[in-house]
Design a protein that fits this description.
The structure is a homodimer of 161-residue chains. Chain A has helices at 26-32, 54-73, 81-94, 112-116, 138-148, 152-160, and strands spanning 11-15, 21-23, 38-45, 48-53, 95-99, 105-107, 123-128, 133-136. With 161 residues, chain A is of the alpha+beta class. Chain A has a domain at 11-55 and 95-160: Chemotaxis protein chec (3-Layer(aba) Sandwich), CATH 3.40.1550. Chain A binds a DNA duplex (30 and 30 nucleotides) through residues 14-15, 17-19, 21, 23, 25-26, 101-105, 107.
Chain lengths: 161, 161
DNA sequence: ATTCGCTTTGGGTAAGAAACCCACAAAAAA
DNA sequence: TTTTTTGTGGGTTTCTTACCCAAAGCGAAT
């Protein structure tokens, strides 16, 4: 059994079935589901979806939303309704709650398929990103790797010094 | 049951029926109708209609109109009759009272169909925008999301600080 | 005022999607 | 080789959605 302090690391190739189902490797689902099978799927960067444990994602976003909600209730945002609308709209489309089915299987919901630009039957890369798991469109993944790999040494130095 | 302080959040795909009726998802109608089923449908931006609880929309617009009316009465607008005319015209067409039928069903009224540029049977996106629900033409929605998503962080900071 | 016709509204139902469950096959471990 | 674990496919059931039809409301015209 894994604890929640384990980093999610590893790169795996998977294929979407015709119902947009994807099974995650046990090496990642173990640590991921340590705090329950409720997850959040988020559009954070192009060609990639991030899968976060709800226990980590929700508190982060809820804190911000709570501030907004209490301001709204206090009447502090009546001059900024337009901004509030804009934010609400982005919140609506940016992330969605999902749950892992048996055998670590995930359904990529409508709206996220188009974002990833994948067809049923497409190949994906499932990549551990330390604190979350990411689903990458293959072309976007190779582009990321070639662009960022030279920075590896600098990045590790940044975080270890 | 929901309170009026809940933010309206969520993205759903729906299709207009042949009589321009649209059924809203229960996740949104619940909070929306917390203060009654009287709504206002408004043209706020191109390719999109906003649906507001009348309890929120009416006070806001009435307050503004009252200011204009008293200014007019005080003779402060005699130099700006043209502007006033323009405003009156927009007030006439910008919003319209509607009521949700049973099953959260809404009729998109004449005059608003053309604004959305939709045919009967068209697909729409129903999006929560924190304080109201919006009906988006699909092309306009994807344009908005791609343009505004990079601003997400900035927008949340604006409203929480 | 009454009747006829059209438009609008409500509800039943069928088609479709999603969740759940199981089974088989391939791969890894014993 | 045998056994267990894991990935993939498919079947079934249940719920939602949208289409269609019937009834009611409204307006007009005789």
């Amino acid at each position: 059994m894994n604890t929640s302090t384990d980093l999610l690391i590893g790169e795996f190739s998977r294929t979407l079935d015709d119902r947009f189902r994807l099974s995650l490797p046990p090496e990642l689902t173990g640590p991921l589901t340590a705090s329950g099978s409720r997850m959040v799927l988020a559009k954070e960067r192009a060609g990639c979806l991030s899968l976060w444990p709800a226990a980590i994602w929700k508190p982060r976003i809820d804190a911000a939303v709570d501030v907004v909600r209490s301001k709204l209730q206090a009447g502090l945002l009546t001059q900024r309704v337009g901004q509030l609308q804009d934010l609400g709209r982005l919140l609506s489309t940016r992330h969605k709650a999902v749950t892992l089915a048996e055998r670590g299987r995930l359904v990529v919901p409508e709206g996220f398929r188009e974002f990833l630009a994948v067809e049923p039957g497409a190949d994906l890369l499932v990549v551990g990103a330390a604190v979350c798991v990411e689903l990458w469109q293959p072309a976007a993944w190779t582009a990321f790797v070639t662009a960022e790999m030279p920075e590896f040494r600098r990045r590790i130095d940044e975080l270890t010094t």
